[in-house]
Amino acid sequence: MSESLHKNRIRLKSIIRGTVLSPFSFGWDWVYRIRRSFYEYGVFRKKTFKVPVISVGNVSFGGTGKTPTIIWLADWLISRGLTPVVLTRGYKGQLEHSSGLLKSGQKFRLNPFDYGDEPLMISNKMKKGAVIVGKKRAENLLKYFAEVQPDVVLLDDGFQHLQIYRSFNIVLFDATMPLNLYKVAPLGYLREGLSSLKDADAIIISRADMVTEEKIERLMSMISEHFHHRPPLALTKYLPLGVYDVHDKYIFSIHELKGLKAIAVTAIANPDSFYNYLQSFGVEIIEKVSFSDHYFFTPEDVNELLIKASQHSSIILCSEKDMVKMKRVSLDSRILFTKVKVDFISGEQELIQGLSKVLHIDSRPS
After folding, report:
1. Going by CATH, does the domain composed of 240-341 fall within 3.40.50?
2. Per-residue DSSP letters for 264-331?
3. Distance from CA of residue 9 to its chain's centroid?
4. Which CATH class is domain 53-238+343-359?
5. Which of 92, 213, 268, 341 has the most CB atoms in a 10 Å sphere around its CB?
6. pLDDT, tens digit (0-9, with 9 covering 90-100), for 176-232
């Protein structure tokens, strides 16, 4: 088959797929538009609270860096003397359809199978405050409000959670997501159309260091068409803090991974971002093992990984989120994880000024 014929066939398949799926994509988009308008005009009522609510969410499926951003935001709020409470669903945890409370400093007797991986990871990082787990977030906040007494509430994955009135909407984009996927499902990878960005108070583009400036500019041009005003726009990357073991003990610098053999295993929404991150530091990945997002590792899974590690004389590397679940199964010293934190390339002060205005605090560094 000639190259031109092959390209024509791919183009034809793309046209057919677009023709078939366009009505579904159009319908999905308008369902979300109508839903937003119903909340905007009071057809559906929003629950209000006496403290500011800051939402951290996105318009796409999959990982855009919400959890590291929540951790950064909680840390910043605590540094300003405020007590944050994080409202999160606790996806795939046993308490997802009921409720649960994680107080900061509560390190023991906590199981990711109950609370979910991300809530435990967030709670472990917080020096003050709490994490409330459960799908019915407004009800759960009411249930625990008097006990936790927050100064500010952080609504995790909250951009589509319109039942709660929010004071500030942060919307995240993953810079590595291909631009041709910026279509509403099932045509693309968006939960809802970019028209929803009219409700955004700030934009963060994560993993901005992993793509070209040209792609960042094209993404910014694409999304800026939908703003009613110009919100603060920040670019972030992940700053490596090192490689740690199952006991959260620092082992060595991320740069010391260069040339090491590793089995890279992850259960996150965007596994390629993790693999690319490791390879950027010179890791020799023997095998890539991907599980579905929020997957709970079994003893059989880990035993198989350890056997492969022995065969290749390699280590096993996972993300910090995965280690929350991995160490419940095994404490083997060959299982390590990389720890990172959000680092701003640009736009941090502009974002802080917007947040400070809503919180009625001084935006200058403390």
Report:
1. yes
2. EEE-SS-HHHHHHHHHTTT-EEEEEEE--TTPPPPHHHHHHHHHHHHHHT-EEEEEHHHHHHHTTT--
3. 37
4. alpha beta
5. 268
6. 999 999 999 888 999 999 999 999 999 999 999 999 999 999 999 999 989 878 899
